[in-house]
Specification:
This protein is of the alpha/beta class. It contains 8 helices and 12 strands. The longest helix has 17 residues. The radius of gyration is 21 Å and the shape is elongated.
Length: 222
């Protein structure tokens, strides 16, 4: 299956050349020359694997576009720009860029860097059934659809996942989170209820998070 690239580049000729070259290496590019249209695309379709972002764009500064994209979806971004001075590179990496390539560059190098970004991204993910968990970036996806969990909810969910099919007491779950250790166990029940609601797990027909009478909970895996 081709890897999906959101390409934001105002130079129409260069954009077409990049898209054509990447296609030979298994990347499918959707090209945008207007950053505002690209932002709306990501808002409605978060299923891209990586973004290639130029900085010299119409209507918006490239770094403002970067921050907007990251606020919508924490997706890997490679900056591709003629602004190759050290100041811009430092700012790009400080904002969270996965790579920064100063134009001009060889298209083959672009391919190699994209492949490295995606390999690193895939190695940091946990895939269980239709769940994808990006632990470093605190991301959870069901069928590639992002699920918003609070910090505590994510800590609980990760602990359940990492102890799949094990019965876990409320006390064990509590100790695995950053909650105060004096927190009442009923608070864990509330967080579990919230997680179930967000992942579509009916408490009456528990598919993922099972209640274990007299003990606590367990995450059921195939």
């Amino acid at each position: 299956m081709n890897k999906q690239v959101l390409l934001i580049e105002d130079d129409i000729q260069m954009s077409a050349l990049i898209a054509e070259y990447l296609l030979e290496y298994g990347f499918t590019c959707k090209e945008f020359h207007n950053p505002k249209e690209a932002i709306e695309e990501l808002r409605h379709n978060p299923n891209y694997d990586v973004i290639i972002l130029d900085l010299m764009l119409p209507h918006m500064d490239g770094f403002d576009v970067f921050k907007k994209l990251k606020s919508i979806h924490d997706i890997p971004i490679l900056i591709s720009s003629a602004r190759g001075d050290i100041g811009n590179k430092i700012l790009g990496f400080e904002l969270g860029a996965d790579d920064y390539m100063a134009k001009p560059y060889e298209p083959r190098e672009l391919v190699l860097r994209l492949e490295y970004i995606l390999k690193k991204q895939n190695n940091s993910k946990i895939v269980i059934g239709n769940f994808i968990i990006d632990k470093p970036n605190r991301g959870l996806y069901i069928d590639n659809y992002p699920i918003e969990l609070t910090k505590i909810e994510f800590e609980i969910f990760i602990f359940l996942i990492e102890n799949i099919n094990k019965n876990l007491s409320r006390e064990q779950i509590l100790h695995a989170t950053s909650l105060d250790l004096d927190t009442k166990s009923r608070t864990i029940d509330t967080h579990i209820s919230n997680i179930r609601h967000k992942i579509g797990d009916d408490p009456k027909e528990q598919r993922y998070i099972k209640s274990i009478w007299g003990i606590g909970y367990k995450f059921v895996g195939e």
